[in-house]
Amino acid sequence: MTLEERIKLKLHLWICAWCQWYMEHLQIIRETARGKADEPPDYVSGAGLSNEARERIRRRLTNNN
């Protein structure tokens, strides 16, 4: 952005509550996404099955076949 564009944006954000709110939430989303990028993939994809649950499923599948 040019200096003029940055100044206009700062002035707009200074007076516009909606855009202030939007920018704050964008920052939260950015920080959260960056934090998740450092975690192992198992944690990023959400809750996984415990080893006990996997074993129960495996036993049920082998018993039914």
Write the layout of secondary structure elements.
Elements: H1 3-15, H2 17-37, H3 41-44, H4 51-64
Walkthrough of the structure:
This protein has 65 residues and is mainly alpha-helical. It has a domain at 1-39. The protein is 80% helix and 0% strand. It contains four helices and no strands. The chain is rod-shaped and about 70 Å long. 0% of the residues are buried.
How would you concisely characterize the structure shown here?
With 65 residues, this protein is mostly helical. The protein has 4 helices and no strands. The longest helix is centred in the middle third of the chain and has 21 residues, at 17-37.
Q: What is the 3D form?
A: rod-shaped
Q: Structural class per helix/strand content?
A: mainly alpha
What is the element string, with H for helices and E for strands?
HHHH
Which range best describes the helical content: under 10%, 10-25%, 25-40%, 40-55%, 55-70% or over 70%? Answer: over 70%
Proportion of residues in extended strands:
under 5%
Count of extended strands: 0
Question: Which stretches of 5+ consecutive residues score pLDDT under 50?
Answer: none
Q: Which radius of gyration do the C-alpha atoms yield?
A: 24 Å
Distance between the termini: 64 Å
The number of distinct helices, counting runs of at least 4 residues, comes to: 4
On the 0 to 100 scale, the average pLDDT is 85
Biggest beta sheet summary: none
